[in-house]
């Protein structure tokens, strides 16, 4: 989510790090910092804001430094402030580190380190690593990093420097990427290739569980037991633009492909592996407050609103609390009936959407507690809400929201299970099934995103791209996914797409069904399976061409439609997380076939900060 650069060589480390961080700003951009080795001490400069803000804050005495580390941050633990920006350092600032990932046992480690007398300067999980390394440091930074990483649970890409070992960078990788760049008389390390390309195309990729020691002369890679590994050099062929997109043609496709990890991150540490209970320790709502809730209002815009529609179904099913879902621009002007036993849930990827923010303020003025589901730490929504449940999707750059939507669904499932538990209203068997289903989702998403699926969907889109209108239909939860599918297709391919509850077809839209018109049917809900099939037959009878998205085991579907796309079997409540993915890819490949501007569709902005 964040960006890391490390440099050692004969150049000016300050300039190299800043230039590298600028190339990584698309990864995270709420604060930045560098630590430079300078005359047996470390010079650390940090600033909330962009890398340009950091440039202004740089300590000029570091201009002669030839080794250092830098970081651009996308806040997770702790707000985007100067103090929380990386690098973080040991008590005496002899050791500094930059880190990507999440340290799950940071609280326990922090308590232990505080007892031992360490002084903390930030609210971050990362800082415990700096102090842990300090604890183990006996003159060899690599040795200390080995020992410290052993003690942490969670993910990490880490680069450390010490004032006592000039010219040396030490790295560790677990579940978060790090790439070493091999230059002439200089070597680098970075979390992403764009930061390396101005210096070299020769790289060595660190694998999970590996460590490295880098100097200007060379880079040595070690496995977890300290054995040296001979890694082949990998030559980067991408240009800078392709490298920023991780080799994908568009950010949207990159973000679609990141969804298994985004879901995994959002679930991380929120389900107790032993009891199977959902733990949302970040929420301050007491069981008594949850028990008193008479109604929930979910308020959001666009894709986030569609997530809210699914949230309603799941919360009502598990927590047995009536839920109303409103588009924020309607909620704020419709004079909703509210009282203090109601809870407002606002959902916003950016946390800056003007209508959502106005709805949040309205709810608070009327004495409602507001719980925000957002992807951006420190956003206005997160600051003004009473409670915040973060989605950990990482920065979403394409205007069309994909991975943020999926993580919003996960947050809503977790919330529904949590409320259900607090109210004693959820059926224990269903809870167990959903919890194990949630854990299976990242693996299932990978299957949905296989090469074979991608090429099948792409072939279908060659046909779809020739039409100027299309329908998405489904019943129950499938209807909410149909709405999201239609929005995505409109947004980036400019095809007029309509979503309908399948049972509504005969109340009007059937008049538009003509020979060959594309109809995408979502068929994952058992309880309404037969009913949806008969709606599909109504379309067939008028010549419509149905592409069905259904689950393995729903064999009758194939007999009724032109083409079918199967999803791995899942509990029908969780099916939307899987079924929305082919609709995202359909939009993407259709827009690609039509030559539209995919990441920046006409007339739209990523964050709608005006009414
Ligand atoms: O940042 P937000 O989640 O508040 O944004 C809400 C909508 O503007 C957003 O979801 C929009 O509909 C997307 N472009 C859809 O892909």
Could you explain how this protein is built, in words?
The longest helix is centred in the C-terminal third of the chain and has 21 residues, at about 405-425. Helix 12 (about 355-365) links the parallel strand 18 and strand 19. This protein has 3 domains: about 5-245, Aminohydrolase, N-terminal nucleophile (Ntn) domain (Glutamine Phosphoribosylpyrophosphate, subunit 1, domain 1, 4-Layer Sandwich); about 255-445, Glucose-6-phosphate isomerase like protein, domain 1 (Rossmann fold); about 450-595, Rossmann fold. The strands form 4 sheets. The chain has an 8-stranded antiparallel β-sheet. Helix 4 (about 125-135) packs across helix 5, helix 8 (about 260-265) runs parallel beside helix 14 (about 405-425) and helix 16 crosses helix 20. The mean pLDDT is about 95. With about 600 residues, it is of the alpha/beta class. The protein starts with a strand and ends in a 17-residue tail after the last helix. It has 20 helices and 25 strands. Bound molecules: 5-amino-5-deoxy-1-O-phosphono-D-mannitol. 5-amino-5-deoxy-1-O-phosphono-D-mannitol binds near residues 304 and 400. 5-amino-5-deoxy-1-O-phosphono-D-mannitol binds next to helix 10.
């Amino acid at each position: 989510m964040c960006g890391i650069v490390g440099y050692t060589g004969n150049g000016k480390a300050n300039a190299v790090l800043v230039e590298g961080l600028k190339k990584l700003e698309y990864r995270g951009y709420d604060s930045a910092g560098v630590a430079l080795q300078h005359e047996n001490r470390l010079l650390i400069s940090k600033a909330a804001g962009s890398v340009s803000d950091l440039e202004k804050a740089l300590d000029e005495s570091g201009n002669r430094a030839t080794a250092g580390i830098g970081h651009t941050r996308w806040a997770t633990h702790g707000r985007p402030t100067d103090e929380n920006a990386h690098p973080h350092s040991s008590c005496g600032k002899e050791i500094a580190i930059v880190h990507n990932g999440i340290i799950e046992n940071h609280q326990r480690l922090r308590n232990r380190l505080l007892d031992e007398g360490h002084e903390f300067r930030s609210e971050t999980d990362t800082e415990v690593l700096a102090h842990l390394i300090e604890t183990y440091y006996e003159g060899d930074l690599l040795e200390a990093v080995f020992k410290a990483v052993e003690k942490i649970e969670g993910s990490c890409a880490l680069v450390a420097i010490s004032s006592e070992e000039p010219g040396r960078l030490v790295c560790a990788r677990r579940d978060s990427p790090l790439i070493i760049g091999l230059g002439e008389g200089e070597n680098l390390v970075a979390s992403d290739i764009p930061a390396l390309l101005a210096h070299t195309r020769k790289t060595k990729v660190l694998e999970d569980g590996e460590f490295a020691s880098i100097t200007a002369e060379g880079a040595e890679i070690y496995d977890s037991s300290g054995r040296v590994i001979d890694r082949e050099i990998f030559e980067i062929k991408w240009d800078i633009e392709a490298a920023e997109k991780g080799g994908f043609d568009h950010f949207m496709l990159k973000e679609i492909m990141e969804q298994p990890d985004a879901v995994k991150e959002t679930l991380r540490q929120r389900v107790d592996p032993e009891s199977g209970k959902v733990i949302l320790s970040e929420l301050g709502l007491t069981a008594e407050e949850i028990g008193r809730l008479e109604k929930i209002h979910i308020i959001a815009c666009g894709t986030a609103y569609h997530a809210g529609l699914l949230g309603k179904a799941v919360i009502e099913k598990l927590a047995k609390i009536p839920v109303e879902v409103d588009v924020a621009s309607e909620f704020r002007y419709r004079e909703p009936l509210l009282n203090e036993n109601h809870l407002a849930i606002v959902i916003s990827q950016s946390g800056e959407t003007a209508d959502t923010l106005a709805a949040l303020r309205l709810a608070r003025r009327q004495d409602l507690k507001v719980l925000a589901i957002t992807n951006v730490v420190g956003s206005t929504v997160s600051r003004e809400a009473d409670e915040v449940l973060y989605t950990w999707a990482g920065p979403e750059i394409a205007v069309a929201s994909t991975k943020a939507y999926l993580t919003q669904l996960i947050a809503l499932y977790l919330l529904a299970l949590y409320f259900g538990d607090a109210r004693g209203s959820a059926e224990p068997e269903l809870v167990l099934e959903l919890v194990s289903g949630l854990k299976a989702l990242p693996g299932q998403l990978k299957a949905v995103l296989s090469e074979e699926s991608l090429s099948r969907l792409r072939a279908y889109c060659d046909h779809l791209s020739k039409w100027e209108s299309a329908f998405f239909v489904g019943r129950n939860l499938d209807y909410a996914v149909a709405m999201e599918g239609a929005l995505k297709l409109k947004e980036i391919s400019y095809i007029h797409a309509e979503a309908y509850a399948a049972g509504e077809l005969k109340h009007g839209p059937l008049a538009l069904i003509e020979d060959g018109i594309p109809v995408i049917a979502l068929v994952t809900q058992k309880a309404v399976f037969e009913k949806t099939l008969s709606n599909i037959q109504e379309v067939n009878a008028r010549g419509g061409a149905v592409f069905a998205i259904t689950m393995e085991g729903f064999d009758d579907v194939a007999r009724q439609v032109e083409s079918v796309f199967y999803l791995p079997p899942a509990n029908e409540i969780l099916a939307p997380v899987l079924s929305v993915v082919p609709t995202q890819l359909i939009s993407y490949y259709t827009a690609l076939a039509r030559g539209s501007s995919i990441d920046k569709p006409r007339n739209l902005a990523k964050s709608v900060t005006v009414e």
